[in-house]
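Sequence and structure are kept together here, with a separate record for every protein. A complete record is shown below as an example:
=====
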Amino acid sequence: MVAALAKAWTVGCADAAGASTFLRSWLRGGRRWKREPLPLLIPSLLLGCLSLAAEEVWDLGTLETIAGRPDSKPFIHAASAGGGTPSLTDALQRLPGLVAAEGFGGIDPPRLSVRGSGLQSAPMSRGLLLSVDGIPLNFADGSFHLPLIEPRLFTGVTLDARAAPLSLGGRLDWTRAPIAESGSRFTLFAGSHQTRGGLVAFSAKESTGDFGLSAGLAHIRSDGWRRLSDYERTSASASVVYDHGASRSRFHIYTSRPRLAVPVPLTEEQARLNPTSVSPAVLRDQPYRKTDYTRFAHVTVRPMGEGTVLEAKVAAAVVEDHFVQLLPNGISTNRGQEGWGALTWSRSGGITPPGETRFHLEAGVARREALRFRNEGGEAGTLIGNNRLRPLNFIGHLRQGWIFGPTLEGVLQLEGIVAERRVGERFSLSAERPSTDLNLRETHFAPRAELHWRPGRTIGVTLALSRQYEPPTFDDLLFTAGPMNARVLQSAPLRSQRADTAEFALQGEVFRTRWSLLVYESRWRGELLRLADSAGNSRGTVNAGNTQRSGAVISLERTLFENAATTIRVWGNYNWQHFRFRNDVVYEDRRLAGVAPHTFAGALEVAAFAGAYLNLGGRGTAGRTFVDHGNNRSFGGSAVSFLQAGWRGRGGIQLALRIDNLLDRPHIGSTAGLLDRVAPGSEPMIFLPGAPRRFLLDLSLSW
């Protein structure tokens, strides 16, 4: 599996002229496509953002757990994570279709989006299902806290861009390598803005192979590049793998404790001219967030004979989260316990035509106690909310795949979802303090159909149609309102957002070039829009009317030169995104805020003799990104580059230097939330400045 992770990956890119012609033909007839034309020279975009990385760090791989599945081909991509990867954004930029916008300067909490899912959250708290070895890290209501992830403790990350239960953006799964042999690793790193940290990891395995143990501990500390943006995180992971009879089991513990200051956004002028500054409100309220999270998980896989496998997973987590926000949003404290379990039965063959049958059941439940206070100079003031939060999810799906012959495969899947969100009031009521009691329960059926055709040995075609749902989180259901000095906690009954999606994919390999093209059209109903006022303060979440997402994902990898001593490769990803309202009473056909029409990343990889390598590259956006759904205010695109150089010596010594934003270009990274409308002439305080030039030096010793 390690070899697979290091050697193979499924990406590609269509020929520039062919892709442009195809997409223009596909979009012809749309009312607004001419306003967002595709680049005529896609290679110029890819080569203009060349990015280089060490071969062992950036190679993508097809995981063994998805190899050969008839329904995995064009939607799943994997990338390496871990050693030499200083941030989440770096680890994720190689995944086609995933857009990672820079965060507010803490432990790199980028806003993640797949086909527009998750645009409304900043920092990201829904829209994707995060997991470790297939076991969710999300809380039971679908929310998550991205800085809990320590990428150095994992060897790979996989994106499944198909909509997942409770998440329209799909699944982002962090993986660890199997315990293949005994060994240890020690790493120290240091960099700009007093960044320093380290990693200690070891693994051991019995000679019989029946028992293995691995563990890792990582710590990072930095003053941050903005004023009042210091952060710190300590994370640990441990796994025990053992065989008993024909079964194999794995027990895993993951714990993480991030603490990060939140410098919050600025006006656009401040973000460009003085990006390290903070607003007076930050000096007054001292916002920060600290979280303690520990998760225990157990997985057992048992072959049942005749191609049948039974897999059982259980997990439990304990979480305590303390979030000091600006005065309008107050201070929240959440404590709770999470429970989750899943049972999967699958069988290959045994039917006519042959294929795979899979039946899956899973359930998640939690008990959380949530307190909300007013922020009085960075300290908890008057209590304004005291709630019991009780989420419950039950999911069952049946999937059947057929192999009709050497060139044709099909998949049908039907999923049933029961989602419940209960908000219990534990606070004395008054005329100024209405009840926040809510009891939302929804039942949905989500079908999916796929057809895979291989007209030639090096080309594949896929067509997919699906419907999926995503319920609101508690952050959507509860919000603060009222005068600035007399905020109260309120609730809003919301319904799940729904997406009906059609996808068409081409992929293949020719002349040592792997390429892929995926186009999609998605119609959303009841989209959950999380709005903010002009100062970036939350205004709560609403269900919008009809929205539409049209887009394309293009990727390629090409080996330019290879011999026994040197390998030179280039890769690139490009996303075209046109997301808009559809005949909305308020917004008409305006574009959805928060996403650039074009995003791109690329890499030129040079691995030379004697273990040396040199990396040069970057990522960026093009076109206008609106910050309000009224389309009254926007900011332009940008591109940032990086340089990475390293050496892998004998005896397990590795040395790496990475410089981000090599040319030190000021730019807007993203926004903290999205606005309803920006008044003409106003200067909304919502812009997050992108990071300046930074470096990180990494020294590692393995034995």
Remarks:
- The two ends are 21 Å apart (CA to CA).
